[in-house]
Write a structure and sequence with these properties.
five-stranded mixed sheet, elongated, 24% strand, 13 strands, alpha+beta
């Protein structure tokens, strides 16, 4: 379900007020995005696709660390695990690239860790914690303020979409799948996960220290939690690394690994691979070509 003209006008007015009040910080924008996603799920429930919602769930891992899930929606069809991204601009990404790209109207490009891989990690530990065979649907939810120019093909269990399409997707699952969970089971799972939302200060501090240990770079607590949602991992203007979330550390090798030194396509965010021209005046010469060829034909010397 798309937003009405009145809702769009209200959002624009709200954004203007937020900027004027200095509320446009990464931390605030990220948390605001999660609240808007929660609001959308209330509409889903109102339309008859009932479920229970939880935010900021610290799921334990085998090594004593935690993995934070933005939002879950527990229903009779299964659990919708939602990774909220409140970016603006054009979004480019593929299912197997390490980074996706958000390009602003001024052509500034920001790289951020592949949210599909990020949510895959969330689902892995959530499944491990629940110890039950429950359908888990991965939803990567972007702001209505962005335009998804390139994203992986949709599948029944993984979907990249804008926030105002949440209802349409859940309705599609509702109409095409059988009920898996009883009302009693939904309540049982809700109570089991609700405990994980009450993370005390020691758990949060341990979460931050895990990142400091892996990256050897002190992080203020308020900076860390803002990075969970909004702050880009790499800004293409200076290619400087920023601290990243615990989920990202699991999937991305360290700075000393060769994989992190690979070049990324500035157009779509896929890896650039070294190739050799086979014919023409440049035959025998090497160049970098986008791994997404022929969909993306970007090349570099």
């Amino acid at each position: 379900m798309s937003k009405s003209l009145l809702e769009i006008l209200f959002d624009n007015l709200f954004d203007g007020i937020s900027d004027a009040l200095g509320l446009d910080t990464p931390e605030w924008i990220g948390k605001h995005g999660e609240k808007l996603t929660e609001k959308e799920l209330k509409f889903v429930k109102f339309m008859g696709k009932k479920g229970l919602t939880l935010k900021n769930i610290y799921v334990p891992k085998d090594n004593g660390e935690t993995s934070e899930i933005d939002v879950v929606y527990i229903t009779q069809k299964g659990i919708f695990v939602i990774e909220s991204k409140n970016y603006s601009g054009w979004i480019f990404g593929s299912d197997n690239s390490y980074y996706w790209t958000a390009m602003l109207p001024n052509k500034e490009k920001n790289k951020f860790y592949n949210p599909i891989l990020q949510n895959k990690t969330h689902i892995k530990w959530l499944s491990n914690y629940l110890e039950e065979d429950i359908p888990l649907f991965s939803l990567i939810v972007f702001s209505e303020r962005c335009e998804i120019k390139k994203a992986p093909e949709k599948t029944p269990y993984v979907r990249v979409l804008k926030r105002d399409r949440i209802y349409a997707h859940i309705r599609e699952i509702w109409e095409s799948s059988e009920d898996k969970l009883s009302e009693e089971k939904i309540n049982e799972i809700y109570e089991k996960l609700k405990i994980l939302t009450n993370a005390d200060e020691s758990i949060k501090q341990a979460h931050i220290k895990d990142i400091e240990r892996k990256y050897q770079k002190p992080i203020k607590q308020e900076e860390f939690f803002s990075l969970q949602e909004q702050k880009p991992i790499i800004n293409s203007s200076n290619q400087s690394d920023s601290p990243i979330s615990n989920e990202t550390v699991e999937e991305i090798p360290s700075e000393n690994d060769d994989i992190t030194k690979e070049k990324l396509c500035p157009k779509c965010g896929s890896k650039l691979v070294l190739r050799t021209a086979k014919k023409g005046e440049n035959a025998g010469k090497q160049f970098y070509g986008c791994s997404a060829f022929p969909k993306c034909r970007h090349i570099e010397n």
